[in-house]
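Project outcomes to date are best conveyed with an example. Our students and postdoctoral researchers have been running inverse folding experiments weekly, and each run begins with a structure described purely in tokens. The record below, which covers 369 residues, was selected by the lab manager from last quarter's runs and is presented without edits.
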């Protein structure tokens, strides 16, 4: 792989220094196009990932700037009146007629993508950039556009599932559907439940629950900076009083990273939170979180724990049994165990399998004595 030459590095440094001083959309668009050109050259020259990411990061920073400027600018008045009057441009209060996107040389789809990227909270945007760099992944506008979509759709994708049929112990579906079925049996049948999701992630556990009559306390040490209303709390040290919750969800990173961090990152995105953890470390994480769960749950409160068996250095670990033993030692009673089979089978990376590939996770239902 080639590295970036001194001339290209200087051009990027010059552009980086101009970003904070950008005063209008045409100037920002010109800088963005320059960086895009440099990025194409680096790709053609097969420059290293780090060099290409330097250009990609600058481009996305400028696109965020463009998105904010497009969001805040006066809207083009569009067509007014009828007949010949509909082609008359109407000036803004300042006396200037704002240019439309076509006149600015910006495609409508580009403008939409940049405004979406600009809507990502600053703290989460910076943290996500750092995560991508730390895990040697490619920085792309497409990734951040999808993150922006997740944030926008976060509050609107919830579709309560009305469970009327019998509930079974095994399903091929997703977490949301499984949780809705489990809740129909094990959630107290009353209004005003205090429900904690201390590993909220993207909120997939809750998407099929009707929470309109209950109080949700959502937190996640990573995505707490991403979604409105979600706190960035550490599940090992929750700021709640004893015996506070009726129900608690607990779904920590349940795979060790091991020697293949890129593979694990693609599947579980846990390098940023549990990089370098062994299976033993993951179990300690479970114990700490479940111990805190025991503290904050009311008597007879329900703890739902998601896990998955795994293999470390060729050795099979039945994690769900180890978690059951942890729960018993803390004072929980095992009420039920559910199996969730993946809708799409996972890839197999080994040429010769020593053990069967895991394609299911497990959900424990515990109750505090």
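After processing, the design step wrote out the following sequence:
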């Amino acid at each position: 792989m080639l590295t970036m030459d001194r001339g290209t590095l200087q051009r990027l440094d010059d552009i980086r220094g101009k970003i904070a001083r950008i005063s209008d959309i045409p100037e920002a668009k010109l800088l963005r196009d320059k960086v895009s050109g440099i990025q194409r050259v680096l790709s053609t020259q097969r420059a290293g990932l780090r060099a290409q990411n330097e250009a990609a990061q600058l481009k996305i920073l400028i696109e965020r700037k463009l998105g904010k400027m497009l969001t805040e600018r006066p809207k083009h008045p569009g067509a007014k009146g009828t007949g010949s009057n509909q082609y008359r441009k109407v000036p803004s209060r300042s006396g200037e007629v704002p240019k439309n996107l076509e006149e600015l040389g910006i495609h409508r789809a580009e403008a939409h993508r940049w405004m979406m990227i600009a809507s990502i909270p600053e703290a989460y945007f910076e943290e996500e950039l750092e995560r991508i760099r730390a895990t040697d992944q490619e920085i792309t506008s497409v990734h951040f556009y999808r993150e922006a979509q997740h944030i926008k759709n976060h509050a609107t994708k919830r579709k309560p599932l009305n469970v009327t049929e019998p509930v079974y112990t095994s399903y091929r579906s997703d977490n949301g559907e499984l949780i809705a079925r489990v809740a129909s049996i094990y959630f107290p049948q009353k209004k005003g439940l205090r429900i904690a999701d201390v590993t909220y992630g993207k909120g997939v556990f809750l998407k099929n629950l009707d929470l309109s009559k209950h109080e949700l306390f959502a937190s996640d040490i990573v995505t707490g900076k991403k979604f409105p209303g979600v706190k960035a709390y550490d599940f090992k040290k929750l700021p709640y009083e004893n015996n506070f919750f009726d129900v608690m969800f607990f779904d920590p990173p349940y795979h060790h990273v091991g020697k293949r961090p890129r593979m694990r990152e693609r599947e579980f995105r846990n390098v940023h939170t549990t990089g370098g953890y062994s299976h033993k470390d993951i179990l300690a994480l479970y114990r700490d979180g479940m111990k805190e769960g025991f503290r904050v749950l009311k008597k007879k409160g329900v703890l739902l724990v998601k896990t998955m068996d795994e293999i470390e250095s060729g050795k099979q670990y039945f994690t769900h049994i180890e978690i059951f033993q942890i729960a018993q030692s803390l004072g929980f009673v095992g009420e039920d165990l559910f199996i969730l089979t993946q809708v799409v089978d996972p890839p197999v990376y080994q040429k010769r399998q020593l053990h069967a590939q895991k394609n299911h996770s497990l959900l424990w239902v515990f109750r505090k004595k």
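The CA atoms of residues 33 and 59 lie 8 Å apart. DSSP finds twelve helices and nine strands in the chain. The training component of this project remains on track.
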